[in-house]
Specification:
The radius of gyration is 24 Å and the shape is globular. The relative contact order is 0.14. The strands form 3 sheets. A 7-stranded mixed beta sheet has the order 10-8-9-1-3-2-18, covered by helices on one side. Strands 4-5-6-7-11-12 form a 6-stranded antiparallel beta sheet, covered by helices on one side. Helices cover 41% and strands 15% of the residues. Helix 9 packs parallel to helix 17. It contains 25 helices and 18 strands. The chain is of the alpha/beta class.
Amino acid sequence: MCGIAGFHASPLPAEGYRELIGGMLAQIEHRGPDEAGCFLDDRTAMGTVRLSIIDLSSGSQPVGSPDGRYWLCYNGELYNYRELRAELTRRGVSFRTESDTEVVLMAWAHWGRSCLERFNGAFAFALKDTVTGELHLARDRFGKRPLFIARHEGAWLFASEMKAFLAYPGFDFAFDPAQLASAFATWTPLPAHSGYRGIEQLPMGEYLTIRGDETERGRWAALDLTGGEPPAVQPPATEDEAVDLVRADLEAAVELRLRSDVEVGVYASGGLDSSIIAHLAKERAGLPPRTFSIQFEDAEFDESAEQEELTKHLGTHHSTVRVSDTDVVETFPEAVRHAEVPVFRTAFVPMYLLARHVRSEGIKVVLSGEGADEAFLGYGIFKDTLLLSSWHELDDATRMRRMAQLYPYLSHFSGEDGHRRMLGLYQQFAEETMPGLFSHQMRFQNGRFAVRLLKDAGDPFAALSRLVAEEPGYAELTAVQKAQWLEFRTLLSGYLLSTQGERMALAHGVENRCPFLDPAVVRRAASVNSRFGDPYDEKYLLKRAYADVLPERIVSKGKFPYRAPDSAAFVRSRPDYRDVLTDPATLDDIGVLDARFVRRFADRVFDSPPERIGTKENQAFVLLASTVWLHHWYVRGNARRRTPLAVPLYVVDRRGSALPA
């Protein structure tokens, strides 16, 4: 795992490239504190800070092809690198290292861009072709690793994290009001959005080639939720067969992600998904892994009982981080600095604290359960969609029965009275009023409240509406598949894998790996979803597949989403935050916020009993607080690191060279 940064076609003199790329890499050194290296020529400077995990002694970057034509700066892991290396060796390709980075390079040299379709990994990379002068940028199929791109005074800038751009001369951050409105409304930046003017994300599964004054963009991996795209999988004929196939695919996915020259740990939340991963890690490695989890002082969010039961059952060496309201509030600003984008809840902050603890324990790699809910329909929103899409065909008794299966962990969904109260709410959303977004209409009501924080929100759903309208094949998906597509393309990649996952882990030099997002596992899930069991019993097949090897309490308890104290933590532990969020000079400087509404809203939150603060107010509060801190860190430039790299910078200097080395 690493971080990359660079620039291309810069009008700045090439003599200063080394110092400049060193400054950019220093901004993201936390991602790869072990080594640093860069490639320079007269048009391009690009570099890597490396977290050494595979081939510790000879996997340094940048790496070049034997003929000197291609140079690669790579962030990520290619899990199937051994298989690809063997195939390339049979085709006559020679290797100088044991690293997956060199496999990526030589695969491109041998197959060109089509090599991407063969990759099973989490990656983003920049590859320079010194013969054609092209710069190629690419990102993995599910968006596990970030890649941001900016245009500035004729130059192309790119980096794993936007803070690297702070080191480029004259580059300034400014909020993009339309992108902020979209993020506030939909809870997360959309695939190409950053929240700032002039900066975009390279969307998941896409590439960008810069060729002189021209660019070529495209998607190399589509999100297939039907199981019909190649390599298609044959749907199982029976439930027993489905269970066996799911087990086999998950076992293979975990085994691939245990490939490492350093110890691999497991995040064990106490839920079904991470428990499956911990069990499989023990099976495939032959000994219990080290496991790590978060405990909360607030019992509403705590799963320590399930964590204890699992770790005793598996015999793991387990350690925890106990998190209080004060921990959340005090760590929030620094966690936002690493998040870089607006955030709608505080659950990423305990993950920041957990990753810090994991690294202090000497662990660089962890497995986690992200992707299971998206792939195997584990979220309540999928049950919501199933119910609402058949609403008019059901009588009230059936609706009530289905409602009881939706959110048993929410107090307002408990009991017959609660279900009856919710009938009216669901009735409002049984018709599609937002084309293509039927499944998420109810969720987006909370977003409609949050955008009131902004001066001019316009149509905050316009960008998402365009995204689904332009997506090939989207209209033909079922209502549940559309919901699934939206989860993969928005909240998973834009928040769970990035802000809550990758960013918090890499803030401390920890790499997270997600077996449930193995392409074969996702395809298998598409072939079995809703075909067996009760579709209102979420992740039925996963429960069935592992009921005999996991504690019954974990298998049967149902979905308990990972959450943390939101606005209540600020109200209980730091009431002075009211002044932080409503400072007139700050609000005027931010410019995009409606200062009058912000002040009224902050007063309302801080004057309310914490238990009376609703979901939409919680989300709006965290979005407000994160935006205020993003303004401090990025718009005002306070995130800029002014100290040089802590490790020596290895330099491949091709400046002044017209021919390959």
